[in-house]
Amino acid sequence: MRRRLDARAGFLVVAFAFAATTAYSTVPTPLYALYAERHDFGPLVVTLVFAVYAVGVIASLLLLGHLSDRRGRKPLLCAGLVLDAASALLFVLWPALAGLLLARVVCGIATGMVTATATAWLVELWGERRPPSRPAVTATAANLGGMGVGPLLAGVLAQRLPQPLRLPYLLVGGLLLLAALLVAAVPETVARPERPAPYRPQRIVVPRAQLGRFAGAATSALTCFATLSVFSSLGPGLLADAVGSRSFALAGLIVFVIFAVAATTQIALAELPAPRLAALGQALVAGGLVLLVLALALPSLPLYVGAGVVAGAGCGALFKGCVATVERIAPTGARAEALAGLFVAAYCGTALPTIGLGLATQALDAHVALLLFGAPLLALLALPGRRLRQPAGIG
After folding, report:
1. Which stretches are annotated as coiled coil (predicted)?
2. What is this structure's pTM?
3. Taking the domain 1-188, which CATH number applies?
4. Using CB atoms within 10 A as the burial measure, which of 41, 69, 195, 331 is most buried?
5. What is the DSSP string of 108-173?
């Protein structure tokens, strides 16, 4: 008979599963340059391989992520972990372009399932214990922290050991299957109804009374994810071409630092009011984009790292402000639907702007392409994003 974990141990297991999922989602980051070299991929193809992940996440958030509220946390989380492990196997067995695209879409679908389910399960497993902020802090650390660990792990393995396009996926795939086995012993917190409700996709509810503020949150979230995506998708290639570094470990380390700074900033500034978080985050994101253009124009590795740190801190603060704003203005009983709209906008930032940047790099120098990429993002921060900086109650 399978041993059943208590709620405290289950909390740690779910956090581990969440971190393993987000770590796997960024494992390919330092390896894109190697794929490009072996298969003669250009920046546009690399960007497409990266961006189709967002398509999978968005589809999953709309079609699958909310099912754990009615079907139970355990089945959805286990299914997501197994699906992610299957995606890792696709990377190993089918390293051609079609296989990479399929593996990334499957990874995105699994990530959407796990993110929504694990976040809710952590809150329920923690219950009324103190401090009440522990589930939110843990979810942030698992999400952004895992996204930083994945590239670091893959980069070190690719730099030091043979089979750089196989070993990272086999290792993380094994961790995902281990997490699924452990999750099977975590107590379920959702009572399944005797008669399941008819299936419907996740609704997206935009609060009409606060449409301007919601638009500011959505566009700012899009800007955050687009900025982080530059470092995650084209970053290793930019390092190789402009800065002159072809170290997989260094590429993974830089991405790790960026996401670690983003996670640390969110946790450190958790008590700051949303308008102040937004103002600080918008200023830092803008500064990070400017530094990135300068780093590639010079070129300068220290300036590139500095751009990543500043942008990472800004994205951490700004996205925290976006989530807090939407939670506050969401209609009663529709918070999940409003947050779904925010996350869909955010993941559109992972796909659309980065594809545009990949297209631009086909015809322009990298720093010129980044100027064209950064200008619309800065406009989104300055115009609709200004609503986030207003005190509560101002439309």
Report:
1. none
2. 0.87
3. 1.20.1250.20
4. 41
5. HHHHHHHHHHHHHHHHHHHTT-S-TTHHHHHHHHHHHHHHHHHHHHHHHHHHHSS-TTTHHHHHHH
